[in-house]
Design brief:
- Two copies of one chain form a homodimer.
- The first copy, chain A, has a seven-stranded mixed β-sheet, sandwiched between helices. Chain A has a five-stranded antiparallel β-sheet with strand order 1-2-3-4-5.
- Chain A is an alpha/beta fold.
- The longest helix of chain A has 15 residues.
- Chain A has two domains: about 50 residues, Spermidine synthase, tetramerisation domain (Spermidine Synthase, Chain: A, domain 2, Roll); about 220 residues, Rossmann fold.
- Chain A contains nine helices and twelve strands.
- Strand 2 of chain A pairs antiparallel with strand 2 of chain B, so a sheet runs across the interface.
């Protein structure tokens, strides 16, 4: 039997049984495409699980929908990272959206996802979507005051995404948003990556007037406990709880989850506030 | 390096690096006491992680407090299973409680916990606590209409705890509760143990007039997503959200978590309702 283990820290990991594996080496990272017994196809970048057919709906719904629902009329959306296409798929469920830009640095992630993960990547060819194979940092420099929503769908802050968890980058995101724009970012695991989590949230807070962190259960991510952070200068997210989600066909996000999105366990709010 | 993997299903597992291990064989099961790098001391029964020093607070707070807070005046509390003592420790934080019975079938679990897990088991010697080394099924037959709260702190429904996930057992629990009594049970992982979860919740619903399921992030349990179910004939749990928890010194349970305790992801409510 073939087993793959992601060492989520030096001392603990997620182990999955593998039917078949394919390995690619891009300019930026090692890309594994595993066919697993428990989670279906699994995309792994530099040893870290990015998405699986079985639980990807949780991450993609929870990154995309709160930000889009919080915005009054989201038309232009940018996804940075997210080459698998799952976030773009969720963004397109919002009928107000006219234009989706995806900025992914690694072309091979997009190609592998298109070939092996069609249920995730299937909307990358949608007419509203333009894919840019570029560095997110440079991409933002050329597009000021343009987007309604920017979603940071990044891998861990080591490797290609490291520079995109820094204050300077969040400032660029803010400059590329319109006045009432909203950012949502994945901000790591509060349990097994406390420092990454704390730093990301603190840097976001330093740049935006309002921010709110929320969690979701993601079985294949470290500790199964994942965080996201919403940020905006002109939106305090207070209207979010009353939004109608019935047209989004979600499998994770429910009215009740949306209503209580910012309810954090005490130890998690303590990390952010201390 | 020594590694331990719990195969949470045939096809996926949690892997932890081990400093030192001790193995005991009781009349009922294999007991491993691992000293791990990531989670501190870890208690493992028949290969399944029961509790770890680092994340035990989540499980024990979330099993004990909702039921005790929902009851107007909990005086007599029974914990079935829970030989590590963590649930008893949380129960004793409620000042109304006068008498705590612990009914654990495996004496060796209690002994190992007392010796190696003092921060978890430390309250088992409290004057309000009586420990019974007995089969939960038989124990309940002798105590009808007695308890205000009964907490089912059981291992998975295979091995020693199998009989304690059945309708017949929930009926005995109900008969041992007073009229306004409340049961709380751990009801497995909705993600990796969907059948166990569904069956437990359905059997509880078949026995009690009111029941409510809630989740907590438990990193060392399957999928990191764990469920609990409250049940009662004469309490609908609607007052729970306004209870004051400031005196409980919790690390997971917060006012907001309590307030939105029953907010479930859509796929989880779908499992229960279908």
């Amino acid at each position: 039997m073939i087993w793959f283990t992601e060492y989520q820290t030096k001392n603990t990991g997620l182990t999955v049984r593998v039917k078949e594996s394919r390995r690619f080496q891009s300019e930026f990272q090692e890309i594994l495409l595993l066919d697993t017994y428990e989670y279906g196809k699994m995309l792994v970048l530099d040893g870290a699980v990015q998405t699986t057919e079985r639980d990807e709906f949780i991450y993609h719904e929870m990154l995309a929908h709160p930000a889009l629902l919080a915005h009054q009329n989201p038309k232009r959306v940018l996804v940075i990272g997210g080459g698998d296409g799952g976030t773009v798929r969720e963004v397109l469920k919002h009928s107000t959206v006219e234009e989706v830009h995806l900025c992914e640095i690694d072309k091979m992630v997009i190609e592998v996802s298109k070939e092996y993960l069609p249920t995730i990547s299937g909307k990358l060819n949608d007419g509203k979507v333009t894919v840019f194979v570029e560095d997110g940092n440079k991409f933002l420099d050329e597009r000021k005051n343009y987007y309604d929503v920017i979603l940071l769908d990044l891998s861990d802050p080591v490797g290609p995404a490291e520079a995109l968890f820094k204050r300077n980058f969040y400032q660029k995101v803010k400059a590329s948003l319109r006045e009432d724009g909203i950012m949502a970012a994945q901000t790591e695991s509060p349990f097994l990556q406390e420092e990454y989590f704390k730093t990301a949230v603190q840097e976001i807070k330093a740049v935006f007037k309002n921010s709110q962190t929320y969690l979701a259960f993601i079985p294949t991510y470290p500790a199964g406990m994942w965080s996201f952070t919403l940020a905006s200068d002109n939106n305090d997210f207070s209207t979010l709880k009353d939004k109608n989600i019935s047209n989004l066909n979600t499998k994770y996000l429910s009215d009740k989850i949306l209503n209580s999105l910012f309810a954090l366990p005490k130890f998690v709010s303590d990390i952010i506030e201390k």
